[in-house]
Amino acid sequence: MVTPGPVVITVAFIGYLVRGFSGAALAALGVFLPCYLFVIVPAPFYARFAGNPGLRSFVGGVTAAATGAIAGAVWVLARRAIVDLPTVVIFAGTLACVTWWKRVPEPVVIVVVGLATIAWRAPERMPGTWVGREARKQTALFGTARPTRVPRVRSG
């Protein structure tokens, strides 16, 4: 969990387990709201001090740290997600789309990648067919994703 996204999702999930939808909403709000306010409340005052070299250095350092945290999350996710030829092709296509065709909205990219993944992975769901056997050979050639261990929660 390198970035705040998984933290908010986890907190919302735990809130949902404890109090349902209202617990999920309040838990996510409790984690997200302070960070949001920390950015929004001082924003009008930033314009007044934007020329301050110390403040500019601070903002530059925070930006570099955020970029590093996002790059670290990308590295962790990529090592687990890019495991065979289909995922390499999908990754390369997505990277090309967001790098060179910058006007494509992210939701469109997500939907197209999701549909491409479903189309590419569908043969694996047909084990008795020639296409299914070839898909299994390809997965064996490139290896599979390392399984993640999910800790068991004891109740009571």
Overall residue-averaged pLDDT value: 78
Count of the separate structural domains: 3
For the secondary structure, the number of strands is 0
Note the main sheet. none
Proportion in β-strands? under 5%
Write the H/E string, N to C: HHHHHH
Between the first and last Cα atoms, what is the distance in angstroms?
27 Å
Would you write up a description of this structure?
Helix content is 76%, strand content 0%. The model has no long low-confidence stretch (mean pLDDT 78). The radius of gyration is 22 Å and the shape is extended. By secondary structure, the protein is mainly α. The chain contains six helices and no strands. The chain folds into three domains: 1-41; 50-81; 82-144, no CATH class.
Quick structural summary:
With 156 residues, the protein is mainly α.
Task: Detail the topology: elements first, then pairings.
Blueprint: H1 4-40, H2 43-49, H3 53-81, H4 85-100, H5 106-121, H6 130-142
Which structural traits does this protein have?
156 residues; 6 helices; single chain; 76% helix
